[in-house]
Amino acid sequence: MTKEQLALCITRAMYQDRQSLDSFNAYQSIKSYFLDLEMDDLIGIASQYGIRVQ
């Protein structure tokens, strides 16, 4: 799984029930933030949302 794919999975998990424009803007900001993190940090965050990284 690439860093971009993992960031997308995490942001989807965080915002899966929200569908407003504000949520979309927050989604974009969080995704950008995640892309700035190291892969190990993303894996740690993903595990908190039940996302398994292979």
Question: Any key phrases for this structure?
Answer:
54 residues, 70% helix
Task: Please tell me about this protein's structure.
- The protein has 54 residues and is mainly alpha-helical.
- The chain contains three helices and no strands.
- It has helices at 3-14, 21-36, 39-48.
- It is globular and about 30 Å long.
- It starts with a helix and ends in a 6-residue tail after the last helix.
- The mean pLDDT is 84.
The largest pleated sheet is described as: none
H/E element sequence: HHH
- How would you classify the helix and strand content by structural class? mainly alpha
Give Rg in angstroms: 11 Å
| Unreliable sequence segments | none
The residue-averaged pLDDT reads 84
How is this fold's topology laid out?
Blueprint: H1 3-14, H2 21-36, H3 39-48
Helix pairs in contact: 1-2, 1-3
Quick take:
The protein contains 3 helices and no strands.
